[in-house]
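Please decode residue identities from the backbone states below.
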């Protein structure tokens, strides 16, 4: 018997893994296929495609691939390989900061939903083709609000799935990571605009009706160029005597901690917060970035986001002829490309 796609020595192993495969029968010109349906019943039948016709052979291979990845195919999950038995523990162990863990956990919820819908219950069931299809599914899946996500968000989630699959291989839940070298081009992100002086005035006025943390966040980011999460500064990292601010947990982790001269514009704010015996400049609510997104929608400035404050700060440094190397240190940028 000639088996298409696997060697005869591995045929028995493939059957035990319940994978569809093609084979030839003596005195028959057609390809035959063996597969398991959603009720886990084994079937052997002719494909109707001739083995001596190259075009029919391609069609037979496509049929085999489709049956292998059938939506309702269910491979028995053994030895604790089911995703939910080990992935949450891996993410908790892998993430070095709480913020990273929350971000990964949120991304994994979407991946887990897709895996469930595809009936992919264990790492061995994942294929390269299914990985490619994730991006299309994610970018077309509508939330309750009717919104979809951008392509780059789906690609970042796929990278997380690849990270998880790497751990699956190390733990023996999979023989290989089929999406480790997946090539999907990212969309070029639109350039974020600089805020005009008039927009800053209007935003400050609108923020008077918003929670205090947003007002503090805006002032710190506008005058330091720091990222959203970095505006939560421990007040013991604010040195009024030496007139400097230290950011202990910037993007990249503690190893990239940096200090900057304290901007005169926010010194009164920082002194007030210190006199009030606060531990941090502010405390974030759940999903602060979404709160900012909702705010800019509310004030009809959907072309803006909080990161525009960082762009504004960098452009002000450039117009003030601050040397590029100095500007990079002030905003903790690792690459000159961002300038």
């Amino acid at each position: 018997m000639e088996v298409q796609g696997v060697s005869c020595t591995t045929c028995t192993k493939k059957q035990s893994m319940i994978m569809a495969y093609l084979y030839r029968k003596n005195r028959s010109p057609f390809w035959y296929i063996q597969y398991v349906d959603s009720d886990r019943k084994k079937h052997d039948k002719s494909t109707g495609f001739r083995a001596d016709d190259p075009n029919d052979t391609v069609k037979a291979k496509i049929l085999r691939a489709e049956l292998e990845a059938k939506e309702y195919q269910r491979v028995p999950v053994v030895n604790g390989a089911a995703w939910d038995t080990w992935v949450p523990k891996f993410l908790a162990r892998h993430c070095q900061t709480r913020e990273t863990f929350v971000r990964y956990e949120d991304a994994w919820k979407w991946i887990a939903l897709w895996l469930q819908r595809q009936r992919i219950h264990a790492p061995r069931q994942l294929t390269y083709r299914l990985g490619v299809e994730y991006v299309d599914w994610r970018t077309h899946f509508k939330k309750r609000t009717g919104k979809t996500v951008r392509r780059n968000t789906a690609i970042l989630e796929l990278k997380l799935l690849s990270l998880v699959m790497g751990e699956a291989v190390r733990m023996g839940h999979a023989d290989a990571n089929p999406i480790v070298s997946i090539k999907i081009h990212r969309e070029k992100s639109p350039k974020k605009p600089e805020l005009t002086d008039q927009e800053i005035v209007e935003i400050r006025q609108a923020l008077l009706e918003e929670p205090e943390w947003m007002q503090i966040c805006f002032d710190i980011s506008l005058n330091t160029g720091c990222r959203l999460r970095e505006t939560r500064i421990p007040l013991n990292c604010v040195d009024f005597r030496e007139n400097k601010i230290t950011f202990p947990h910037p993007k990249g982790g503690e190893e990239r901690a940096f200090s900057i001269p304290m901007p005169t514009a926010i010194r009164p704010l920082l002194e007030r917060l210190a006199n009030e015996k606060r531990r941090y400049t502010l405390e974030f609510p759940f999903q602060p970035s979404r709160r900012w997104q909702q705010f800019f929608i509310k004030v009809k400035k959907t072309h803006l986001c909080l990161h525009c404050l960082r762009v504004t700060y960098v452009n002000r440094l450039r117009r003030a002829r601050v040397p590029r190397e100095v500007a990079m240190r002030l905003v903790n940028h690792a690459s000159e490309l961002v300038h």
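Observation: The first strand starts at residue 3 and ends at 4.
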